Amino acid sequence: MIPVADAAWVEQRIQEIKLGAAQFTTNAFLTPAKLGAWIGSAELFGLPLSGCVFLLRKDRDFHHLYYFAASPTDLLHSLPVLDRDVPGTVVCDVVGKRADVDAVSPLLGNGGFRKLASLYRMVKIMSGPGEPDAADSGVVPAENADAQEVVHLLNTAFDPYVEQIPHPAEIAAAIGNRNILIVKRGGEVAGLLHFELAGLTATVRYWFVGPAYRGQGIASSLMRRFLAQCGKAKRVVLWVRAANDNAIARYRHFGFVSEDLADEVLIRQGSRK
Ligand SMILES: CC(C)(COP(=O)(O)OP(=O)(O)OC[C@H]1O[C@@H](n2cnc3c(N)ncnc32)[C@H](O)[C@@H]1OP(=O)(O)O)[C@@H](O)C(=O)NCCC(=O)NCCS
Fold it and tell me: Distance between CA 151 and CA 99 in Å, rounded?
């Protein structure tokens, strides 16, 4: 594994793999901004092989795996090197249309990976300004002073292997961009909605209400305020665990529908070396 210090190195390796590849396959949909941020914080490593390049992103005490392979067979043949050269726990999100995900996921089993969770994407097409919420709903953008509590809530409510929980620096940046809405009760953060806006697409990253505050309208106020302020977004997307019936029913209530896009989260538990 070599540290990646340059986005051009990544782009060049990907182009080499793509050249003449009839069945190119990848689980990485990287924007230049995201790639730049990972390189800037020295968390990205590369493993270039023949017919396949692996990128590994350090997160807490494990790595996320991204592959770019000329074909599923090339991916399969490269897995022993991954097994040999990358110790510890590795998590791989196989993302794409359901049929493609179902074809690739089993191959990872040959590298010692097992299924951890299934997610799918939901979308809401915006047909105008969202429903306005009540002015006294108590929804406000999170401030710097709320950052620690937001980090704590996300870390206790979500699984870092499956839900890619942001680091404190990312939370600070999201607060700076007013991308985290909160509701406070008795001085503590009772609920939050963390979103992103990129071009015409808005993404709900996390929607959470503390167990003691559920069923009281806080979740709806957060969602309605978010939808009302989505501005020019033409669609809102989110990933949800296929087993999270509670959230799925509520997303449907707000007009979200399922898409044919799946994310199969696989894990290879450490320690190998
Ligand atoms: C998802 C979550 C934020 C919802 O909060 P909540 O307080 O339980 O939500 P509510 O009960 O207030 O329901 C919100 C809305 O959905 C509606 N709703 C509730 N149950 C429903 C059901 N079974 N079917 C359809 N609509 C439903 C409610 O009526 C309400 O809408 P309204 O204000 O128009 O009446 C909360 O359960 C949570 O934090 N869960 C854990 C984290 C999580 O799974 N987050 C989502 C994935 S990121």
Answer: 35
Q: What's the CA-to-centroid distance between 208 and ligand 1, angstroms?
A: 9
Q: Convert the pLDDT of each residue in 91-128 to its tens digit.
A: 999 999 999 999 999 999 988 999 999 999 999 999 87
Considering the entire predicted model, what is its pTM? 0.93
- Packing angle of the helix pair 98-108, 72-85 (nearest 10 deg): 40
Q: How far is the CA of 235 from the centre of ligand 1 (A)?
A: 20
CA 256 to chain centre: 18
- Closest to 238 in 3D by CA, of 219, 216, 255, 225: 255
CA-241 nearest atom, ligand 1: 47
Nearest CA, atom 43, ligand 1: 208
> What's the length of the chain?
273
Closest residue by CA, ligand 1 atom 31: 220
Alpha carbons 17 and 36: distance in angstroms, whole number: 21
